[in-house]
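Changelog-linked ticket: nicotinamide-adenine-dinucleotide example.
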Amino acid sequence: MPRAPGARFAVIDPATGEAFDDAPDQQPDELDALVGRAHDAWRSWRTDRVARARALRAAADAVEEARTDLAALLTREQGKPLAESAAEITRAAARLRYFAELDPGTQPIADGRPVRSEIRWRSLGPVAAIVPWNFPVQLASAKFAPALAAGNTMLLKPSPFTPLATRLLGSVIAAALPEGVLTIVTGREPLGARLASHPGIRHVTFTGSVPTGRAVAEGAAASLARVTLELGGNDAAVLLDDVDVEQIADRLFWTAFRNCGQVCMAVKRVYAPARLHSDVVEALAQHAKTVVVGAGLDPGTQLGPVNNAPQLAKVERYTTRALAEGARAVTGGHRLDRPGYFYAPTILADVPPESRVVTEEQFGPVLPVLPYESIDEAVDAANDTGFGLGGSVWGTDLDRAEAVADRLECGTAWINHHAELSLAQPFAGTKESGVGVAGGPWGLYGNLRPFVVHRPEEA
Ligand code: NAD
C-alpha cells in the first residue's frame, strides 16, 4: 500500500523496547530527484582532488566536534555502551582523514613498446550505499570516506532500526561539503531495493546479510552498476594445545561478545583441544557470568541489549534449538527478565557440530565451544562453512600458530587476537562473505575506474 508523503516510522530504544523517536519514511519515488541531485553535484565534486581532501578533513573535524551528541544518539537507537559508540564516531573521523590523504596517482604502462600509455583514475558517479544496524556510523563512513575521496557522490541508506545517528552524521558532514555530495535516505523496504537498482547509480556498495546481498546484486544487474558486497561471517577461533587459557580468556571473550556479539567478524565458534575444553568453557563462563549487562547509557554497562526484536528472536531460536539437540548452557541460555531486548551472555558446551548455532551466524551473545582431537580436524571444522570473513589461532608458539592461521579460508586471520582492523588493510571476505575489496588503497580503487591514455612516443 502506498505510504503518505511525509510519513515517518518509529525508532525503538532496544534497552526499553519502546519507541523514543521517529524518522522519515522516504518513498522510492523520491529517489529520482535525489539521484539527479547527486549526479549534478558529481560534475564539480569530481574535478579537484585537493579541494575534496580539504572538505573531507573539515568534515572529520565536524564529526569529532559532534561526537558527544552522535554517540548518545547511537547508543540510544543501537544499544551499545556509550564508550563503544564514541569509539565508532572517532573511527569514522579517522577514516575520513585517512582517505582524504590517499592519492590514486597515475601509473605508466611500460611494456617496451614505443608508446606512452598511462593509467589515470576516474570517479564513477553517484554511488548507493546500504548498511546494517550493528555499526551504523562506522560502516557508513567505510562507504562514504573512500567513495567521496575518489570523487563520487553518494546516497546512503542506514537500516530502519538505526536511522537517527546516521541522519545527524549526514547533517554534520553536509555543512562541510557541497550540496548533494552526501545524501542520507531513510525508509523501509522497498527503498533499499529501489536504490540498489536505480539506473542513475554507478556503484552499489552494500554491507549486510548474504540473502539481502544476493538481492542487491540482482537489482544492480539491471543497470550493470559495479557491486561491492560485505556480508556475513561465522568466524572460528582455534585454540592450540599450548594456549595459556587464563591469559587469553578475557580477550577471547570480548572478541566474541563485544557489541553483544553483533559483529560480522566476531568469534562465533571456538575450537579447543579436548584436553583443555573444560578449562576454556569454565574461563569463558566466568566472564559471561560477571559481565555487567545493561542499558548502553548507564556508565557501568559492559554489554548492552540485542539491537532489535527479530534479531533477539533469532538468537533465542538458535539457542533453544541447540539445547533441544543436546547442548548445555554452562551459563545463560535465556532472555533476561527485564524490559528491552536483553539476552543473558551464553556459553554453550556439548553442542552438536551440525547445530545451527555452529553452522550459521547467530549474531548475538551466544558462543559455542567445541572440542577437537587433532589440528587437521580443527582446521577442517573452521573451514567447513559457506562464510569466509575472518578467523584466529591462539597459542604460545607464534610460528606454529601462524602456520595454522595460514590454512584458514578467510579474508583476515589473526594470532592471539580477532577483528583488529587497520584502516590501511584490504577488507575482503572470501566465499559467501563478500565480493570486492574495501579498506586501504583497495577501497579507494574500488570506487574508481581506470582510464588509459595511449599516445605514440615523440619522434
Ligand atoms: P540485512 O541484510 O537484513 O540489512 C542490511 C541493509 O539492507 C539494511 O539497511 C536493510 O534495510 C537493507 N535491506 C533490506 N532488504 C533489502 C533489499 N531487498 N534491498 C536492498 N536493501 C535491503 O542485514 P542486517 O540484519 O541489518 O545486518 C546483519 C548482517 O550484516 C549480518 O549478516 C552481518 O554479518 C552483516 N555484516 C557484515 C559486515 C561486513 O563488513 N562483512 C559488517 C557488518 C555486518
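Closing comment: Example verified and attached. The pocket of nicotinamide-adenine-dinucleotide is lined by residues 130-134, 139, 157, 159-160, 189, 192-193, 196, 207-209, 212, 215-216, 230-233, 264, 361, 363, 389, 429, 434 (CB under 6 Å). The first strand starts at residue 8 and ends at 13.
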